[in-house]
Design brief:
alpha/beta
Length: 213
Amino acid sequence: MMIAASFDAVRNVPLGLIAAAVPLARHASLAISARRKAAHPIAAGASERASPLNQAVVASFAFLLAAETGLFSRRLKLDNVYPAGAIAFMKQRGLHGNMLCDYAWNDYAIFHCAPPSRVFVDSRYEMIYPRRVIEEYLDFDLDRPGAQRMLAAYPHDYILIAPAGAAARVMNRARGWMLIYKDADSRLYARSGPAAKMPGVPVTGSARDAGFP
């Protein structure tokens, strides 16, 4: 069932692998043991007598490998670049409001900034957002005609995007927005107002190692 679900949706592939790993490993071990006994019955008996030592060596190696790769860490290493520095800056300055984020960052922003802050479009976009709204977001994200209209049509308080890409070109031309934070991973803009008038902006921060939580 899990293998069939994996073919049905790509996001089920990890679950399918997890579910199949234990029975596959068990049956592979039984198959190898049976083949070894059939080919070398005497050697197989000696191997079984030495198996506790072998198991201890394998267990020690597995423990060291897990420790080295961070398996016992309380934080999960993320597989993408996230705006950890910009989010930390917002929390330090008490900034919150409506955020237009890079699409890949929306769930990250929700986890760290909700409920005081809300994002424009999140990963449920196909389920709850009208097609018109999605197209307007893509106009902004891809710097298509109408990108500037996207900034004026909704009450965004902050824009959080990557430093390179089409959306960055849109913000370079945008009026009424101030860059208030930047680092190697992200750019944070505020609509003209108190946040845009903070002393020392734009603040240049350092990109942080983002993890979960």
